[in-house]
């Protein structure tokens, strides 16, 4: 007997045996739905995450965190300064002496 026939019989209550059910899970919050369209709606309802980055003259990116003090680690002014500083220790030391 095919899976489809078993499922149809189960739906009509003709076959009391175990049957197959498909659930559709939102990949973001893991909530399960009986209809794929409901899972798609749930997936699309989740907000997009926003990240803010400082980008230096040389293209170095430093993430800025909202709740950090302006000049503290992760803060806006710290990130803007950090983005312009090299990750190479020697070059960085020279840049700090210059500026
Ligand atoms: Zn969801």
Q: Can you walk through the features of this model?
A:
38% of the residues lie in helices and 12% in strands. The chain is α+β, with helices and mostly antiparallel strands. It folds into 2 domains: 3-45, no CATH class; 52-98, no CATH class. The chain has a two-stranded antiparallel ribbon with strand order 1-2. A two-stranded antiparallel sheet has the order 3-4. A hairpin with a 6-residue loop joins strand 1 and strand 2 (32-33). The termini are far apart. The model has no long low-confidence stretch (mean pLDDT 90). Zinc ion is lined by residues 26, 28-29, 31, 42-43, 46. Residues 26, 28-29, 31, 42-43, 46 line the site of zinc ion.
Give the structure's gist in a few sentences:
The chain has 99 residues and is of the alpha+beta class.
Strand order of the largest sheet: 1-2
Distance between the termini: 80 Å
Q: How is the biggest beta sheet arranged?
A: 2 strands, antiparallel
- Tell me the structural class: alpha+beta
| Low confidence ranges | none
* Total helical segments: 4
Oligomer: single chain
Give me the strand/helix succession: HEEHEEHH
Helix percent band: 25-40%
What fraction of the residues are assigned to beta strands by DSSP? Answer: 5-15%
Hetero compounds: zinc ion
pLDDT average, as an integer? 90
Strand tally: 4
How many structurally independent domains? 2
């Amino acid at each position: 007997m095919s899976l489809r026939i078993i499922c149809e019989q189960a739906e009509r209550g003709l076959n009391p045996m175990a049957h197959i059910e498909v659930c559709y899970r939102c990949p973001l919050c893991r909530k399960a739905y009986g209809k794929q369209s409901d899972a798609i709606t749930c997936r699309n309802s989740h907000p997009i995450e926003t990240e803010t980055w400082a980008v230096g003259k040389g293209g170095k990116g430093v993430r800025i965190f909202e709740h950090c003090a302006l000049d503290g680690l992760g803060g806006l002014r710290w990130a803007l300064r950090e983005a312009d500083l090299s990750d190479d220790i020697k070059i960085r030391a020279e840049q700090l002496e210059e500026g």
